[in-house]
């Protein structure tokens, strides 16, 4: 085996398909989000505005979150020093889990290294707990859920995205006595559309299935206490396992599930992805707990985010740009070609100081390449105006299609 040649071939394949990824080095400026500094490969710098971050509410610079982290860091040191089982459980982990259980109205919560790990570890472990489990998984579920479903082995059924009629067909075709679980998301992050939570819960009840929801792009931002779309829609008590992250709207790091005490106890006891890894640093747990607590009441941040998203969509639509609008906080602009998408992104960055990463295959299907903007309460009117004018100019410059301008 020529290992070098094999690596070259793999990398070349990505270059050939125009989907080799390059990372942009940025330095975020705490206290000035969404402003940041872009460090070019040649070492020169440029001030930029970040328009594609997942720190949706700017909590990564919230003074109370930072204070909680400083306090825990100074009190306890850098790392946790162990797995949860062997010296790595601190009061900060316990407090964070209590805060999360309360948020979702569940008996318990369990913190993982990330929501990716939480999805992967939980979904793959459920197979051990319920032998013969059939998992019904939405076709557009996140890579971490796909991986968890796949790794667990066993039967799986993929239902067409948000298609409850198809889901019903699949459920009805299986043995009524078989254990079942429906896995889906509350907001699909690339289109910004919502999962049909109530309809899926109805089906789960009818077919005696468990429900598993990924609220990663919704926690902090939807529902009166920021518990997500299931809370907003009055369906949270009907979901058996809620998964989410502490790294997007909560602005810190880590992931979790919330469920019944018994379910959490079983996952805690059986999931290798939870058991055999060092727990979060106490300072991270403390910052996350502060952020969750703050967003239980900070409705003004949720409102400001929704307002900015609405304004940005309205203005881009007014220019006839092809916005994908499902009423969530995410603002995807359809480009439909990987080369154009990359070029637009490069020009926005270099010429306008606007940072938005092109979203290409395999994150989205080929032909649906897009720019995905994430307005937040910390983007102001001037920054929104600058973005809209830049998009207008570039659309004209590149002679891209516009929709009929509607009122
Ligand atoms: C980002 C993301 C995750 C993973 O969350 P991390 O905490 O960053 O690992 C899981 N599910 C969805 C839908 C995501 O977009």
Task: Provide structural commentary.
The chain has 407 residues and is α/β, with parallel strands linked by helices. Helix content is 42%, strand content 16%. The chain has 14 helices and 16 strands. The chain has helices spanning 3-16, 63-76, 91-104, 115-129, 143-151, 164-173, 197-206, 229-232, 261-270, 272-275, 282-295, 299-318, 338-352, 381-397, and strands spanning 25-28, 35-39, 45-50, 108-112, 134-138, 156-159, 180-185, 187-188, 193-194, 210-214, 241-245, 255-259, 331-334, 354-355, 358-359, 370-373. The strands form four sheets. The protein has a seven-stranded mixed beta sheet, with helices on both faces. It has a four-stranded mixed beta sheet with strand order 1-2-3-14, with helices on one face. Helix 2 runs antiparallel to helix 11, helix 12 (299-318) runs parallel beside helix 14 and helix 13 packs across helix 14 (381-397). The protein is globular, with a radius of gyration of 22 Å. The protein starts with a helix and ends in a 10-residue tail after the last helix.
Low-confidence stretches: none
Helix content bin: 40-55%
| Biggest beta-sheet profile | 7 strands, mixed
Portion in strands = 15-25%
Bound molecule kinds, no repeats: pyridoxal-5'-phosphate
| Average pLDDT over all residues | 96
Structure class: alpha/beta
Choose one word for the global shape. globular
Please work out how many helical segments DSSP would assign. Answer: 14
Note the gap between the termini: 62 Å
H/E series: HEEEHHEHEHEHEEEHEHEEHHHHEHEEEH
Number of strands: 16
């Amino acid at each position: 085996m020529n290992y070098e040649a094999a690596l070259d071939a793999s990398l070349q394949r990505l270059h050939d398909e125009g989907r080799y990824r390059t990372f942009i080095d940025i330095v975020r400026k705490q206290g000035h989000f969404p402003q940041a500094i872009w460090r070019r490969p040649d070492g020169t710098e440029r001030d930029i505005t970040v328009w594609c971050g997942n720190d949706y509410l700017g909590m990564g610079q919230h003074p109370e979150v930072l204070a909680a982290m400083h306090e825990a860091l100074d009190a306890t040191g850098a790392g946790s020093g162990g797995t949860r089982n062997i010296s790595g459980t601190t009061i900060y982990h316990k407090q964070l889990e209590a805060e999360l259980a309360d948020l979702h109205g569940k008996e318990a919560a369990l913190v993982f290294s990330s929501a990716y790990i939480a999805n992967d570890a939980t979904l793959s472990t459920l197979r051990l707990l319920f032998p013969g489990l059939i998992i019904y998984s939405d076709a557009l579920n996140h890579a971490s859920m796909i991986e968890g479903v796949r790794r667990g082995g066993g039967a799986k059924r993929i239902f067409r995205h948000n298609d409850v009629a198809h889901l019903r067909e699949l459920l009805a075709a299986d043995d009524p006595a078989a254990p079942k679980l429906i896995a889906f998301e509350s907001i699909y992050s690339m289109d910004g559309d919502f999962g049909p939570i109530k309809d899926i819960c109805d089906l789960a009840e009818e077919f005696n299935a468990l429900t598993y929801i990924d609220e990663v792009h919704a926690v902090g931002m939807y529902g009166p206490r920021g518990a997500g779309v299931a809370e907003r829609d009055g369906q949270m008590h009907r979901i058996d396992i809620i998964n989410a992250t502490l790294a997007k709207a909560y602005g810190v790091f880590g992931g979790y599930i919330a469920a019944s005490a018994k379910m959490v106890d079983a996952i805690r006891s059986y999931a290798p992805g939870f058991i055999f890894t060092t727990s979060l640093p106490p300072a991270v747990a403390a910052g996350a707990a502060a952020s969750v607590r703050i967003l239980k009441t900070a409705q003004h941040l949720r409102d400001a985010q929704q307002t900015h998203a609405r304004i940005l969509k309205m203005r881009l639509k007014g220019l006839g740009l092809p916005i994908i609008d499902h009423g969530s906080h995410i603002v995807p602009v359809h480009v439909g070609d990987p080369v154009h998408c990359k070029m637009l992104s490069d020009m926005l960055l270099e010429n306008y100081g606007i940072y938005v990463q092109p979203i290409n295959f395999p994150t989205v299907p080929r032909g649906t390449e897009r720019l995905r903007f994430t307005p937040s309460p910390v983007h102001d009117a001037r920054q929104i105006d600058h973005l809209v004018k830049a998009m207008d100019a570039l659309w004209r410059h590149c002679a891209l299609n516009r929709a009929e301008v509607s009122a």
